[in-house]
Amino acid sequence: MFDKLFQAQQKADEVKKRLDSISVFGEAEGGKIKVVASANKEVKEIVLDPEFVSSVDREELEELLVVAVNKALAQAENVSQSEMQAVSQDLLGGMGGLGNLFNK
Question: pTM for the complete prediction?
C-alpha cells in the first residue's frame, strides 16, 4: 500500500514539473493583449501592444487584461485536468482491474 502511495506522489511531482514546462495563452482584442501562463496557472508574461494601450482608457485596459488572464487560466485548467486524468487512469490501471470497477 505504501508503495502505491509513494508511486502516486512521484507521479504527482512529475505532472507538476511537466505542467510547469507547458505554456498556455490567453488573448483579448484580437491579440493586442496577450497573456502567457504555465499549465500550473502561473502567469509568466503579459504583452501589450503599445499603440493599442495608448488608444484605450485605463478601465477598458483593465477589463481586457482580466479577460486575457482568465482565458489563459482556463486553458491551464484544461491542460492540468487532462494531465491529472491521465495519471489517475495510469495509477488505477495498476490496481488489478479496480480502475474499471465503475465503468461497466
Answer: 0.77
Please identify which residue in the block is written with the cell numbers 493599442: 52
Tell the residue number behind the cell numbers 512529475, with chain if given.
14
Q: Flag whether 38 is in a domain.
A: yes
CATH number of the structural domain spanning residue 34: 3.30.1310.10
- C-alpha distances out from residue 91 to 4, 15, 63, 94, Å: 8, 13, 42, 5
Give the number of domains in the chain.
Answer: 1
Residue 74 lies in a domain: yes
CA angle 37, 55, 43 (to 5 degrees): 10
pLDDT of 93 above 90: no
